[in-house]
Fold each of these.
Amino acid sequence: MTTIVTSYVNPDLDGVASAILVAGYLMPAASLRFAGRLNAETLGVLGALRLQSDLGDFLQPVTNPANFVLVDCHHPAQLPSFVRPEDVIQVIDHHPDGHPEAFPNAVVQNEKVGAATTLVVEHVLLRPASPLPAISAHHAGLVACAIASNTLDFTAPSTSARDMKVFGLVRRLAQGIELDPLLASMREWRAQILSASTREAVEHDVKVIDSSLGKVAVAQIEAHGARVLIHRPELRQELEALASSRGAISALLSLVDTEEGTTTLFVTNSEVGKLVAALHPSSQSEFVFKLPYIALRKTHVIPALQG
């Protein structure tokens, strides 16, 4: 049976890079399929490293039965529609809000690191007596970019020593790749979402979370200057539409401003706001909370919502 590697809908660079590495090194017979769209940062990195061909026909519909490997995701509400949980055979993830019990036939690895790509590369390069080949310079560059992106250049609270170790290793393997200019370009690509329409911005990266009050659609934007989106007059309306479309009791937008080192949260439900208040904001209103630090969805927002 065919094996397909995939991630959550609208995957980020970490999810896409992890899938490419799994299909390229751990399961060479597997193919890639994604749902939704790839963001500007992901497309920019793949283009700069000339790795677009690694994607194959990644948006081609899945019409035949298949086994699935999930990377950077193991929550049923975040799966592409073509994935049935019982068909998942392996999970490699780093999120605290997953549901391993939903995948009865899968080997589940879910560990606290900053990037799923870190876990994949550990399988490829750091297992004793591994028969697998060393990764190419361009794939090493891809891994370095994915780890830097997902840890916000190692400033995110989820950053671990394992991420730092793998980053150092692949940086040495990325011979001929000018990483520093590429990492700088990535920051610019991430900021492009700030020029998008409000609807596109809030739908850019959304995960539905099971909170103590019910389902919450949590959108996250990470960019220099992300805080400015809070002033858009149509923001509340678009977030309410997002919550409705996802069958959620509330939407929550997390604006992680990597320039200022702050996080601004906007909720559409005051009861959800009371949960968010546990994150000790420096200022707040009924629906807007400003945190004087970088707070990620997986390290801060989800635990607060789950109580």
Amino acid sequence: MNRKVLLDTSAILCLVLDEDGAGLVEKTLMSAKTGHESVFLSFASITELKYIIWRQRTEADADNLMKLMRTWNMKIVYPDEELCLLAGKLKKEYPLSFADAFIAATGITNKLVLMHKDPEYDSLGKILEMQRLPYKKNKRLEL
């Protein structure tokens, strides 16, 4: 069976920044190359990745990531009216950012497994199948 995976922005960042869980993201992308899995990305993640990498590093680094992502066997999902309306409903009913509402709506509408490491999605466990990557550990201030 061909698993259909939606990579959240946090999953791509996990891979790029070599965080805990990067191996799972890499394995999924490799599996997509061989046709064992289908990988999807929301248009909203492209926007988030562009500005996050540009803010944290440089515009050239952000552009290089965009070029690299084009080489991955991954389908970009753009919204239609149905997806927009569902994203609006999710934004109203759950504690989600605007981008995360679109990403979640993409997963729900297309029956995809959302791979992420963003606790914002935890409230969607009953309506969206998810594969959680290891969350970042909170750093505590030692006094």
